[in-house]
Amino acid sequence: MNTRADDCIVVLCTCPDGDTAARLARMLVEQGLAACVNVIDCVRSIYRWRGETMEDREALLVIKAPAARYERLEQAIVASHPYELPEIIAVPIERGFEQYLQWINEL
């Protein structure tokens, strides 16, 4: 199978803590919406929210998934995420190791 890089995406999503991030990561993988999710604990986020500058410690999900599953992946995150406005940003993969890209798409 010849997988094109743009068949795959990386989705970034911040969570309030490592436990929430791990729960979401496991759910996405178990539901077949993501091939792999990295949980990066203790990122520092500085952001603007409702007219104020905020600063929080968060955990970052780095989600690797088939582009064709984005809509379902987004819906699953929104339904389970504790934030009023969760960060969900999909970035197309421009290039990658062919066998790894194939693995992502084998879901």
Describe the protein.
The radius of gyration is 14 Å and the shape is elongated. It has a 4-stranded antiparallel β-sheet with strand order 2-3-1-4. The protein has 3 helices and 4 strands; from the N terminus they run E-H-E-E-H-E-H. It is 30% helix and 38% strand. With 107 residues, the protein is α+β, with helices and mostly antiparallel strands. The mean pLDDT is 95. The chain has helices spanning 18-30, 70-80, 98-105; strands at 8-15, 36-49, 52-66, 89-92.
Largest sheet report? 4 strands, antiparallel
Strand content: 35-45%
| Neighbour order of strands in the largest sheet | 2-3-1-4
> What is the string of SSEs from the N terminus onward?
EHEEHEH
The radius of gyration is 14 Å
Class derived from helix and strand content: alpha+beta
- Please state the overall shape, judged from the principal axes of the Cα atoms: elongated
Output mean pLDDT.
95
Descriptors for this entry?
107 residues; alpha+beta; 30% helix; 38% strand
Reconstruct the topology from this structure.
Layout lengths: L7 E8 L2 H13 L5 E14 L2 E15 L3 H11 L8 E4 L5 H8 L2
